[in-house]
Amino acid sequence: xxxxxxxxxxxxxxxxxxxxxxxxxxxxxxxxxxxxxxxxxxxxxxxxxxxxxxxxxxxxxxxxxxxxxxxxxxxxxxxxxxxxxxxxxxxxxxxxxxxxxxxxxxxxxxxxxxxxxxxxxxxxxxxxxxxxxxxxxxxxxxxxxxxxxxxxxxxxxxxxxxxxxxxxxxxxxxxxxxxxxxxxxxxxxxxxxxxxxxxxxxxxxxxxxxxxxxxxxxxxxxxxxxxxxxxx
Amino acid sequence: xxxxxxxxxxxxxxxxxxxxxxxxxxxxxxxxxxxxxxxxxxxxxxxxxxxxxxxxxxxxxxxxxxxxxxxxxxxxxxxxxxxxxxxxx
Lengths: 232, 89
Fold this sequence. Notes:
CATH architecture of chain A: 3-Layer(aba) Sandwich
Distance between the termini of chain B: 7 Å
Strand order of the largest sheet of chain B: 2-1-3
Protein name (chain B): Phosphoribosylformylglycinamidine synthase
Largest sheet of chain A: 9 strands, mixed
Structural class of chain A: alpha/beta
CATH topology of chain A: Rossmann fold
Organism (chain B): Cryobacterium algoritolerans
Order of helices and strands of chain B: EHEHE
Number of helices of chain A: 5
Keywords (chain B): ATP-binding, Cytoplasm, Ligase, Nucleotide-binding, Purine biosynthesis
GO molecular function (chain B): ATP binding; ligase activity
Low-confidence stretches of chain B: none
Strand content of chain A: 15-25%
Low-confidence stretches of chain A: none
Radius of gyration of chain A: 16 Å
Number of helices of chain B: 2
Helix content of chain A: 10-25%
Shape of chain B: elongated
Helix content of chain B: 25-40%
Oligomer: heterodimer
InterPro entries (chain B): PurS (IPR003850), PurS-like_sf (IPR036604)
CATH class of chain A: Alpha Beta
Number of domains of chain A: 1
Order of helices and strands of chain A: EHEEHEHEEEEHEEEH
Shape of chain A: globular
Mean pLDDT of chain A: 96
CATH superfamily of chain A: Class I glutamine amidotransferase (GATase) domain
């Protein structure tokens, strides 16, 4: 089981994503934005960061990178693809996911451990969660406000395409407290929070049990491994 | 060389946090007659050769697909800048 992580100019969390994949039990494969080669991976992660300085729009220039032609093709054929933060922005810019992400409504960058509720456990990346499970993973963004036209939002809600929702105070003005969505097939998931930062005791969010012991993010990566191995 | 200008604005129905921040600054300067600000983008694209209908159609396509994201923005204007006086081709 090999999971590719694409590095773009300005990616920040590519190494963390690779480490999360290794801790979950798969082999991470470093991919480069300028190539037209997915190196035969079974799944893909588009990591967080500020690709191309987020000039034009967040994730917009990265979504036009050479490797994105192969990413879009693979996603349309059913390969599991997870976009985290800047990766989520790229997925909306590439039209693999609906809606868009705009500057936080309060105008400030936000960085905190965020409580979330998992709404959809049928996706390739969330099958290991219980429906309605409450989890905590770090959130850090300046442009995380999820928006969509009213009829799109209604359809996303009606078809169960909302994957995770913010609990407590809405951190960025996202409509309906949406923190992550999926496509109709459930193989493409975009998340504004960062599960790759909550995968190892000692380095995750605080929990009731102990400081920095939160590993709720690991389940996104173990879920995709289970999904790929059962369909192989 | 001619220049084509493309102007893009956040959709009117969406919150524009950047414009809101600028409006807040104007308020703090006592400029109370200016009640709101919306902030968009202007692209100036220099063209090799002359501008014809096909090129404008190509720019319209780029404006709709690359320079703007129709989920969050509208293309509000495309026009050709006259060459500055004295410039020769």
